[in-house]
Amino acid sequence: MPPDTIERAWIEQTQERATIFDAERGIEDEARELVVRRQAWQFGIVPLRVDDGYLIAATSRTQLPRAVRFATRVLGMPVQFEIADDDELSRLLALQYPIRGMDKSIFDGTVFAGLFSRRAA
Which residues contact 67 (CB under 8 A, 6 or more apart)? Predict the structure, then answer.
């Protein structure tokens, strides 16, 4: 079976097991330190807490494939995802990993288009 087929099936299974993000549960500093700002924004992932050997992390449905790839290739620990909408995820990223000028437009690539068009002018 081709690797991309396996990866797609794995992402679908991850999405089925994901729960809805609940801001009331809070964010633990130790979990947040597992990811640097650039990684959080680039891969659409916000570590929330570590529970029984699993990292619980927030992402959105649109960012889930990217977050799953990052978690499996870089973090080296099992991850359970909580799903937020893109607006909620971008607010969470801005709060936990502030980078000036970053917002939800990074999820569709328009933030980079704006940066490059300003340089060309």
Answer: 43, 44, 45, 57, 59, 81
pLDDT in tens, 66-91: 999 899 889 988 999 999 999 999 99
> What is the DSSP secondary structure assignment for residue 25, as one 8-state letter?
G
Query: Would you say the pTM of this structure is higher than 0.90?
Result: no
Residue carrying structure tokens 């889930």: 64
Rg (CA), the chain: 15
Output the CA–CA distances (angstroms, integers) from residue 26 to 11, 23, 55, in the order listed.
Answer: 25, 6, 14
Positive/negative CA dihedral, 117, 89, 64, 97: positive
pLDDT in tens, 19-55: 788 878 888 999 999 999 999 999 999 999 999 989 9
Neighbour tally for 1: CB within 10 Å: 6
Picking from 107, 113, 3, the residue whose alpha carbon sits closest to that of residue 61 is: 107
Between β-strands 19-20 and 79-84, what pairing exists: parallel, antiparallel or unpaired? parallel
